[in-house]
Inverse folding.
């Protein structure tokens, strides 16, 4: 397993989904990658803020892709989030905290001008609720609103844990984009990241 921040960052970059992993038509968004020096935190007012990563995290990386707006349809926005923890227990705690956040804050402000409401979540260990890919998995769903794009639109978050690594795929719809369309992209992106994470962890053992 990765023991240094440099090794963990290399793993995160190898695992995080790139545009082609989500399906046809996806391209890089601008900005394409997050600043690795920051970690998203949901504050007591249910607003997402950026803080320094906790000491339990060796590396974290987020990549943003989209199908651009065209032919009277809005964009499909997706993000791939890979976090490499120091221990399996630390990764387990992240999964538990993510579930708790949806219960504590069913309505959340993602950033200025963007919010989600009615968020629900469900967790599944390996072998339960169809989870045959990861040691632990959770899904969240809600309604997405944007000052620019309107709403409500489809919103979903899928997160999995393999050893000390968590991978997440998040998708947001818009005008003319169906839940099935966004969901299919998330399944592809999440599947690609889980497969890569397994390969990378086997290589580093």
């Amino acid at each position: 397993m990765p023991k240094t921040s440099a090794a963990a960052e290399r793993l995160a970059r190898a695992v995080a989904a790139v545009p082609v992993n989500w399906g046809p038509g996806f391209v890089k968004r601008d900005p394409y990658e997050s600043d690795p020096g920051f970690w998203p935190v949901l504050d007591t007012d249910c607003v997402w803020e950026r803080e320094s990563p906790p000491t339990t995290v060796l590396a974290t990386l987020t990549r943003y892709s989209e199908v651009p707006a065209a032919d009277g349809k809005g964009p499909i926005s997706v993000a791939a989030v890979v976090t490499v923890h120091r221990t399996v227990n630390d990764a387990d705690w992240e999964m538990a905290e993510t579930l708790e956040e949806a219960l504590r804050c069913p309505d959340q402000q993602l950033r200025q001008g963007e919010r989600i409401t009615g968020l629900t979540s469900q967790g599944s260990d390996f072998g339960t609720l169809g989870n045959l890919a990861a040691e632990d998995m959770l899904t969240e769903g809600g309604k997405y609103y944007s000052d620019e794009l309107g709403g409500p639109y489809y919103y979903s978050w899928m997160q999995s844990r393999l050893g000390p690594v968590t991978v997440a795929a998040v998708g947001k719809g818009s005008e003319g984009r169906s839940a099935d369309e966004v969901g299919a992209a998330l399944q592809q992106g999440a599947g690609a990241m889980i497969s890569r994470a397994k390969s990378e962890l086997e290589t580093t053992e």
About this structure: The first helix runs from residue 5 to 15. The first strand starts at residue 27 and ends at 33. The two ends are 6 Å apart (CA to CA).
